[in-house]
Write a structure and sequence with these properties.
Radius of gyration: 19 Å
Shape: globular
Mean pLDDT: 79
Distance between the termini: 35 Å
Largest sheet: 5 strands, mixed
Strand order of the largest sheet: 4-7-5-8-10
Order of helices and strands: EHEHEHEHEEHEHHEEHEHH
Helix content: 25-40%
Structural class: alpha/beta
Strand content: 5-15%
Number of helices: 10
């Protein structure tokens, strides 16, 4: 799933690196005035084009998720900064038992050719705040290369794509770049099995980024504290699981599927005492399986709406 705004020159590079076996490519157009849509169709006639309902990357992602029909959703950027050739690494972790897998430029095997010293400092600070508040061990909070099972989308509870854009032209909360932080936090706070893949971020090939370091940095900080309050309200109401978040750091290589012992690695909780090795599950699920009401990290839409109504009454 690729959100795009005026990326006609970058799409050929991105599409050329898509691995074989992908049966659905969705491009979410943010109102491009160049040939972004036409180029996407020329490159891949079966591409699905979705027009976003408001503005901002967050709204683009929400519109794209709603259009996805496959079992696994992978979100990459249209500017060439995220490498589609890494997709098999994300999928391997999901198949091995993770609910949600995020890329990291600062985990083993990761690197960035684009981030500035100022942005790196800001990312480290925001990362630290999240790890302290939510008990996670993220190494890279503000990176938009993620993959997850489509069935977890209702749990992420993204802004309704049907809502109108504010009359003053501003964004609804969650429609901007803060969406990446929101998604990562909600996946962890819900008790999903969250994995991490070392990823190499490349410099944008053509054009300029819409990211504003200070404006978007403050939106991310506000998102962190807003999500912390949301988590506490939901836990008081019994609407979310209050368990340890599993976080793994595999060291897979693009040319090979990660071995089982790598995918099993967990960095924030030791193995349960007294459990024979032969009885442990062959992925990270055994560490927090008892905390889950259902199968992998999802709730029915009716349940989500009931929980939202309950949280609203508490507010």
């Amino acid at each position: 799933m690729i959100p795009a705004l005026n990326e006609e020159r970058n799409l050929p590079h991105v599409f050329a690196k898509l691995p074989e076996g992908i049966d659905e490519v969705i491009v979410v157009d943010g109102g491009s005035v160049d040939r972004t849509v036409e180029v996407a169709r020329e490159l891949r006639p079966d591409v699905v084009i979705v027009q976003q309902s408001r503005i901002g990357k967050g709204n683009a992602l929400a519109c794209g998720f709603a259009a996805c029909t496959g079992d696994i959703i992978v979100m990459i950027d249209a500017d060439g900064s995220t490498d589609p050739a890494e997709i098999p690494l994300f999928v391997a972790q999901l198949v091995a038992g993770a609910d949600f897998v995020k890329g990291s430029r600062f985990s083993k095997g990761g690197h960035s050719h684009d981030i500035t010293k100022l942005r790196k400092l800001g990312n480290d600070g925001l990362n630290l705040v999240v790890n302290v508040l939510f008990g996670t061990k993220f190494t890279d909070l503000c990176y938009g290369y993620n993959a997850f099972w489509r069935r977890v989308v209702p749990t992420l509870d993204l802004p309704d794509t049907g809502l109108p854009r504010p009359n003053d032209g501003s964004k609804l909360w969650g429609d901007g770049f803060e969406i990446e932080t929101m998604i990562n936090i909600r996946a962890a706070a819900d008790g999903m099995k969250v994995g991490e893949v070392g990823s190499i971020e490349h410099a944008r090939i053509h054009g300029q980024s819409n990211l504003n370091t200070f404006r978007d940095g403050f939106r991310v900080l506000r998102t962190i504290f807003s999500e912390y309050g949301r988590m506490r309200r939901l836990r008081r109401s019994g609407a979310t699981r209050a368990g340890v978040i599993v976080h793994q750091h595999p060291t897979a290589t693009p040319s090979n599927t990660a071995p089982a012992h790598v995918l099993n690695k967990v960095v924030n909780r030791p193995p349960a005492a007294g459990v024979p090795a032969g009885e442990q599950r062959q992925h990270v699920a055994h560490l927090n399986r008892g905390l889950r009401r259902d199968e992998v990290g999802t709730r029915r839409t009716d349940d989500i709406k009931a929980l939202q109504a309950r949280a609203t009454r508490e507010d």
